[in-house]
Design a protein that fits this description.
This protein is an all-alpha fold and 91 residues long. It has one domain: Up-down Bundle (Methane Monooxygenase Hydroxylase, Chain G, domain 1). It has 3 helices and no strands. α1 runs antiparallel to α2 and α2 packs antiparallel against α3. It starts with a helix and ends with a helix.
Length: 91
């Protein structure tokens, strides 16, 4: 355990930031689960809206270094492929 006052403060700040980052990651995962559920139920319009939301949240997380930039792009790309595949099946 740290003895220096500034080191103790940095530990507190790190804990707070970790909690915020965890919450943001969890929020993204929840949206992805909702997106996949919408696809299963053939709710394409809702899935499109959720994909926009996921894209926005992932890009914001990438800017804040919560998720790596390429990982965010990869996730959005894969989800978009799933959506497009579902749309093709519907036609």
């Amino acid at each position: 355990m740290a003895n220096i006052r500034s080191a103790k403060k940095r530990i507190r700040i790190a804990e707070k930031k970790t909690a915020v980052n965890r919450a943001r990651k969890s929020e993204i995962k929840t949206h992805i689960k909702r997106f996949e559920l919408a696809l299963e139920n053939n709710e394409i319009d809702e899935a499109r809206e959720l994909l926009k939301s996921i894209d926005k949240r992932l890009k914001k997380a990438a800017l804040r270094n919560i998720v790596h930039k390429n990982a965010a792009s990869r996730r959005v790309s894969r989800l978009t492929k799933k959506l497009n595949k579902k749309i093709e099946e519907a036609i």
